[in-house]
Amino acid sequence: MKREGLTIILSAPSGAGKTSLCRQLFKIFPDIRESVSFTTRKPRAGEIEGEAYHFVSNEVFTRMVDEDAFAEWALVHGNMYGTALSTLEDSRKKGVDLVLDIDCQGALKLKEQFDGGMYIFILPPSIDELRRRLESRSSDSQEVIERRIIRAADEIKESRWYDYIIINDNFDVACGELAAIVIAHRRKTFRMLEKVGKLFDI
Ligand code: 5GP
Predict the structure, then answer these.
(1) DSSP assignment, residue 40?
(2) Is the CB of 82 under 6 A from ligand 1?
């Protein structure tokens, strides 16, 4: 029996450090893949089509919604984002572990409709620290930062239905916790049976 790929769903308010944690996760586990979402957002400088996202028009996105091509989709900061059903199904079938960096609305839709995902929420240690991190990025105006903080408070309320919560106070500790959660899921008996079968020819 082939081992089914893990679906690892990560959500966090902006400024919680999700991007850096994801990057580190891919270094620790080079065989884990990142899901490439579809979005109607315009590419930022340096973002490459098919790597960061599949950048599509509103028309294409709407057509995909009508054709049930998405496992989940949501409106985030005024743009549409969605995970293609085929991305999820392919990786599961091929036994590839996949990370989805998606917002809480999309994560909830997945949790309601699909079995087997692991849902991890990354929290900042405090709202003050979140504000400090957002300000130190210096890429956003004060107004944008305030909007992100208000949104963060709403998103943090959603953390209660996730399977795991990681508080990203110390980056190395948070990375260790994320890796430990992934390893624990990878070592579940039903995911190891394929390897056991090969060892003992059963
Ligand atoms: P950004 O535009 O900064 O890359 O992402 C903005 C937000 O959209 C982030 O919170 C990210 O997690 C979320 N996001 C990215 N891809 C998807 C997706 O496919 N579905 C959902 N629901 N959210 C997504």
Answers:
(1) S
(2) yes
Does ligand 1 have an atom closer than 6 angstroms to the CB of 74?
A: yes
Looking at the whole model, is its pTM more than 0.85? yes
Please report, rounded to a whole number, the percentage of residues in the chain having pLDDT higher than 90.
82
What are the tens digits of pLDDT across the range 60-105? 999 999 999 999 999 998 999 999 999 999 999 999 999 999 999 9
Q: Domains plus CATH for the chain?
A: 7-200 (3.40.50.300)
Beta bridge partners of 82: 38, 73
Q: In what order do the strands lie in the sheet with 7-11?
A: 33-34, 98-101, 7-11, 117-123, 164-167
Q: Which of 77, 86, 102, 111 to mutate to test the pocket of ligand 1 (most atoms within 8 A of CB)?
A: 102
